[in-house]
Task: structure prediction
Amino acid sequence: MFPTSIAGSLPKPSWLAEPDKLWPQWRLNGADLTAGKLDATLLALKLQEDAGIDIVTDGEQSRQHFVHGFLEFVEGIDFANKVEMGIRNDRYKAMVPTVTGALKLKGRVHGSEARYARAHTTHKLKITMPGPMTIVDTIADRHYGDRVKMAFAFADLLNAEARALEADGVDVIQFDEPAFNVYMKEASTWGIEALHRAIDGLKCTTAVHICYGYGIKANIDWKTALGIEWRQYEEIFPALAASRISEVSVECIHSKVPLNLLSLLKGKDVQIGVIDVASDAIETPEDVAATIEAALQYVPRERLIAGTNCGMAPMRRDIAAAKLDALGRGAALARKKFG
Result:
């Protein structure tokens, strides 16, 4: 009851990459970088296991950014001449690569870290990838001329890698779609259909993570402007409930999302964020247990998973470790109370 997991990412060790940054520069190169990424993956697994996390991830230690870590393995993308583009409906601007030709995988994307993680943990293993809609919202296009067509092209590549990850022994494959609560109408139509293309043929658990973003200033400012209630999910949850995705991951603690919206996800496993990644304050186990208890009004206990609101990549490592410990201990408290 109440298995624990995280949204996906953890901070990288300072010997591997710049600390406390969402887009860190690597501090190693060549063979040292390849080995360092796997060493950091092992540390991420150990950190989660020690904290009592049930469904562990690779911590996204092998990728510089959750979207571009996938794009680096795709042909037809120009990384050398980046352009500035508004992201998430112009919430903030970023320098992004450009699609210049037909998309094709160069080879495996996350095979090395997935196989390494699988060999070094007996826990259930989750690997995350960016969803098709979020990818096309994070890259410029000079080839397809149509966001939907390009999204489905990316969905085919995601599906190829997802099938390979399943063969590697991955238990949960999660697609990160923060764009879903920015483009709600599109998410309910072609966004979910693109996800269906990405999960085609999979037998493992499939999940989609939707949230209001990392704890960076652009996202915090945006959330401040959303008012006393964040109701974007009201438009997309019914469509997700009708989808073929197994699990939906959303934030909960310190969120202005009305909890009763979770009832719109009937029939799905729901991972609720019980750890706030936009604050350095460390939750207590009692805080975590209380958030779980509040969500139980709307999510059956057998379908509830306790996690983090979003990725922890930009956080200080010591703070992230303390929050993971609170997550594990808080879920244990909730099991004791409701078991």
Observations:
- Residues 5 and 307 are 5 Å apart (CA to CA).
